[in-house]
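Protein folds are increasingly written down as C-alpha cells. With that in mind, we are printing a sequence and the C-alpha cells encoding its fold.
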Amino acid sequence: MKRLFVLLIVCTFIGSISAKPKAKKQPLRVACIGNSITYGTAIDDREHYAYPVQLQQMLGDNYIVGNFGKPGATLLRRGHRPYVEQQEWIDAKAFNADIAVIHLGINDTDPRNWPNYRDDFIPDYCALIDTLRMINPKVRVLIAELTPLSHRHPRFQSGTRDWREEITAEVRMVAKARKCQLIDFFTPLYSRPELLTDAVHPNAEGAGLLAKVAYQGITGDFGGLQLPAWYSDNMMMQYGEPFCCKGKANAGDKVSVTFTDGKDYKYEATATPSSETGEWSVSDNDNVLEAGKTYTLIVATRAKTLVYKNILAGDIWLCSGQSNMAFQLHSAATAQRDIPKAKNPNIRLLNMRGRWDTSNTEWPVEVLDSVNRLQYMDIPQWTECTPETASVFSAIGYYFGKELNDSTGIPIGLVCNAVGGTPIEAWIDRNTLEHEFPAILNDWKNNDFIQDWVRGRAKKNIAQANNPLQRHPYEPCYMYEAGMLPLEGMPVKGFVWYQGESNAHNYEAHEKLFDLLTRKWLDTWTNGEAVPSLYMVQLSSLNRPSWPWFRDSQRKIAEKNWNVRMAVTTDVGDSLDVHPTRKAEVGHRLALQALYDTYEHHDLIPSGPEVTGVEVVGKEIVVSFNWAEGLATSDGKAPSTFEVADYDKGIFYPAEARIDGDKVVLTCKEMENVGNGVIVRYGWQPFTRANLINKAGLPASTFREDSHFEDCTY
C-alpha cells in the first residue's frame, strides 16, 4: 500500500507539472525606420495604409511592427534634417527591435545634401546600424534599396535622377559591409509610376507593394515554386544552348529539376536562403539542347510539382510592333489557300494579345485598373501550329517562321506580342528613356513627340479614368513593361519588327528612339556571344504625306546598323488601307534577310536593289546599286518615279531612266547646269508605283541620295 501511495503522489506531481500552460512566445518586434515614405505621407488614411501598418497585417500576431518614419529625414548627419537627431530615432532605439527595416536616402538627393556631404553617407549609415546592434546584438537588419523618383519630379534631370542612383549604389555597399539583408523597394514601384502620385510618395496601393517586399524579406515567403510565365506544355527552348532553368521559391526551399529526352538528367538547387529574392537556377554546360528533340521538364519542391511536356528545341523569334504585325492570318490575301496547310508540330506559337482593343472606344472602368497593373497582355500557353492556332496568329510571323522551318529544317518558335497603334517609345524601357530621351515622358497625352491620332485614341480609351496618371498601351514604356519584361530570360534568336505608322510624323525623333530600342533589346536578349538580329519592315505605300521621308529614314537606319536589316514592301501596299493584306510577300522577304544573315545561306539574294551612290557623268546621272544583278522593272516598262534636283536649288523634276547593267542612268532636260551636285530621289510618293526590281523580283526602296561635289559642271 505504501508503495502504491507513493506512486500516486509521484504521478499526481508529474501530472500537475505537465498541466501547467507553456510560456507564450513573445512576438518579434519589427522597427520600420525611414522618412516620409515609411511614415505614410500622401496616403489618405496613413494610420491604416502606411506600409508598416500593412506589413503588420501581413505578418500577423507573432510580430509587433512599429512605424518610426520621419518626413523629410536624411540619413546624412550633416543633412538638412538628420534622422538621428529626430524623436523617431529615439523611439526606434527604445523599441529594442528584433528586426529593423531601414529605408533612408531619398531626402539625401536634395541639392543641400548629396553634393556637399556624399562622402559621409556610408560611414553615417554604418554608424546607424552599429547603434541598433549595440542595443540588441541579435537584431536582424534589412536595408531597402531606394524607392523610385518619377520623371515628374521638378529636380529629376538637375540631379535627383542621378544622385538617387549614386545613393542606391552606396546602400548596396553598406549592406555588404555590415552583412545586412538587402531588399528591393525599387523594382515593384518603378514600372508603376501612377502609384507615385506626387512623383515621390507611393499611395496606399504602392505602400502595399513595399509591405509585401518587407514581408517576403522577413519571412522568406515568396509564394512557393514559380517559373517564368512563358513556361508551358509545347514550349520552345533554344537549341544549341546548354540546358538552363531558373525560377523562384520560398527561401531555403530545395528544388529538384528533372529534364528528360528518354534519358533523365537530374539537378538540385536551393532558393536563396537569405530571403532576399527566393531565386534559384540550375544549368548544365554538358547537356546542350538538340534541334528537333522533344523533352519533358519536371520541377518540384516538397510542396509543389510543375510538369511541362512536349518541349521542343529550336530557334525562337519574337515578332513585335503594331497592327500590321498583329494582323492575323485569317485576314491575309492568301488565307484560304494557306490555313488548311498550316499543321506543323515543328512550329510552336506563343500568341500574346492585348486583352482589350485599342479602337476608338471608351474602356469600362474595371478595365482601367487592370491596365494600370500591367495586365493588358494575355500570356497564354505555347501551342503547336495547327490551322486553328495559325489562323489567329500574326500572318507575317507565320509566313516568316514557316519559310525558316522549310528552308533550314530547324524547328521554329514564334512569339507575337504586337499591339495595334503602339508607338515605338511604348516598347522602350523606362531607364533608357529617363536617361536618353526624358522629354518624351513628360505629359505624354499632350506631347508633340507623340502623333496626334495616337494621343487622341488613348484619351478616348481612358476617358472614364479618375486617376490623372492612368496608363495606356500607347504610353512611353508601357509595352516594354507589360509585354517585354515578362519575356526577359527567354533566349531568342532574333526579332521581327513591323512598326512606324504611329511615328511617321517625326522621323527625326524616330531615328533616335529606334536606336534606343535596338540597343536595349539586343543587349537584354544577347546570350553569351550570340547577338540577335532585328529584321524590320519598311512602311508600305499609303496616301500619307510624311511616309516617303519616313521610309527613307528606315532605309538609312538599316544601312548604319550591322545587326538591323529591312524588308521593302512599297509594292504590296494599299493606297487607302493602312493594313494591306498581302502578308505572305512580307513574311517571305523578312525570311530571306534572316536566311542570308542569321543562317548564312549566302546563295540567296536577300534584298532588292540598294542604292550605293549617285554620280554625274557628262549630261547623265548614274545611280549605282548593291543586289542589282538582273536589274529590271516589275512591269517591263522603263524605270519610273525617278526625280532629280540641283543640290543648291532643291526643286525636283521627273527624270527619264534606263537600265544599264547594274546601274540606272538618268537624264533630265530641266537640269542644264549643275552647281555643287544633284539630288536623286526614287519612289518619293506616299503611295508609289515605283517599279525597279532585281532578278529575285525584290523591289528597290524609296530613297533620297545626293552627289555633292565642288566646282563641277556638265
User: Anything to note?
Assistant: Residues 1-19, 710-714 have pLDDT under 50 and may be disordered. Residues 156-177 form the longest helix (22 residues). The first strand starts at residue 28 and ends at 34. The CA atoms of residues 238 and 549 lie 38 Å apart.
